[in-house]
Amino acid sequence: MTLEIRRIVTGHDADGKAVIDDDAVMTNVHQLRSGNLQTLIWVTDDTPAEVDGGDDPAERTLDIEPPATGSVFRILELRPGKDAYMHRTDTIDYAIVMSGECDMLLDDDKEVHMKAGDVMVQRGTWHGWANRTSEPCQIAFILIGANPPAKHLHP
């Protein structure tokens, strides 16, 4: 698996001084149902989130959505030539294309092309990500639990 992401996590020592709790390349790379790769960076169960110690939440097994009142931060690598996996989540998503290019598909064959440096705010829409290039595309996603949209056509 080719997804190599270095994660640095800060914390506090016993005196309250800022320290580095973890600095390592993520090893929790998994293949999703779509065939693309992901690494889970962080998960919170609630907002506001706890910032003190505890177990590493990136060691969890988690589907697409975060806990209902929480958040998830993951990096997705869209493999070249993969078709879009269409889905919808009850979340507000912040997406940042880190490298490569991709297309986000919506209803009625609408789509938007994105390249490295582009960002998107996605609000509970039916969508899928396709990589129609010959190079991988890495996207950072932050998903925050949200209420479902008042009207939507898809589950």
Short note summarizing the structure:
The protein is mainly β and 155 residues long. The protein has strands at residues 6-12, 18-25, 29-31, 37-44, 71-78, 91-99, 101-105, 111-115, 119-123, 128-130, 137-145. 21% of the residues are buried.
Annotate the secondary structure layout.
Blueprint: E1 6-12, E2 18-25, E3 29-31, E4 37-44, E5 71-78, E6 91-99, E7 101-105, E8 111-115, E9 119-123, E10 128-130, E11 137-145
Antiparallel strand pairs: 1-2, 3-4, 4-5, 5-11, 6-9, 6-11, 7-8, 7-10
Distance between the termini: 31 Å
Measured as a percent range, the helix fraction is under 10%
Spans of 5+ residues with little confidence (pLDDT < 50)?
Answer: none
Specify the oligomeric state.
single chain
Indicate the CATH topology.
Answer: Jelly Rolls
User: Helical region count?
Assistant: 0
Given the C-alpha coordinates, what overall shape results? globular
| CATH architecture identity | Sandwich
Number of separate strands: 11
Explain what this protein looks like in three dimensions.
0% of the residues lie in helices and 45% in strands. It is mainly β and 155 residues long. It has one domain (32-145): Sandwich (Jelly Rolls), CATH 2.60.120.10. A 6-stranded antiparallel sheet has the order 3-4-5-11-6-9, with no helix packed on it. A 3-stranded antiparallel sheet has the order 8-7-10, with no helix packed on it.
